């Protein structure tokens, strides 16, 4: 009986085995991070002061889904109508699929392979209080004929006086992202912060979506373990810094005027996600789950 060993496998088979193993490793991390974040958010729901946030604390519900094209799927985590958070989507997915030739040409690998494997985590949190900023984070591993990591994290304060780079929450958030970057490469923050500033900008409005953070894509140093460690630290930094900001802000009362400002600022979120967000476009173009993709939309919003 023939024994299946690495020596008997073709180079393509060996490469695919390696990619699948890496995807499995990244997927396990993303799913574990999801569970830790959800547990922390449910704790915040219970901690929110009752005089500002009446009612029962909310918990997450989880909805598995399967892709309509290719193979794979994911789990959507949803929190709706909570005390502290009006709406949260935190989702993990893994997929095997096939790109269009046009999409493949715009990705590393120059269209050599249309087949891809991927795994990711993405989240968006919409607090009820306009004093508490909205946060977004995603990291992903994607491989065609080459593999890479991408993602980032950004903060969107709702009130005008909170949306400067030297505002307290902005300084706190950027310091956490910088620590994550500096632990891996002293040049990362100076590269990935401006990338976020550019990416999260709405040219039709001439304004930034928030105070930014970091954004990176096509990260492939040639060392998977190194790049994966950085992606993990971005997720861990978010888990550390955002609950700290929430706990500092959630006891602050707000006015009707500030609530109106929050709803107007959320309009920028909707416009960005529908017009410019790469994750939204990629998910819709590759047969992703529409409910999880569109869960980034805020529950209430206004435009002037």
From TrEMBL:
GO molecular function terms attached to this record: coproporphyrinogen oxidase activity
Region described as Disordered: 1-21
Gene3D superfamilies per the UniProt record, alphabetical: Coproporphyrinogen III oxidase, aerobic (3.40.1500.10)
Pathway annotation from the record: Porphyrin-containing compound metabolism; protoporphyrin-IX biosynthesis; protoporphyrinogen-IX from coproporphyrinogen-III (O2 route): step 1/1
Gene Ontology cellular-component annotations: cytoplasm
Top-level taxon in the UniProt lineage: Bacteria
EC number: 1.3.3.3
Keywords per UniProt: Heme biosynthesis, Oxidoreductase, Porphyrin biosynthesis
GO biological process entries: protoporphyrinogen IX biosynthetic process
Subunit structure of this chain's protein: Homodimer.
NCBIfam families tied to this protein: PRK05330.1 (NF003727)
Family: Belongs to the aerobic coproporphyrinogen-III oxidase family.
Record-given protein name: coproporphyrinogen oxidase
Organism: Rhodopseudomonas palustris
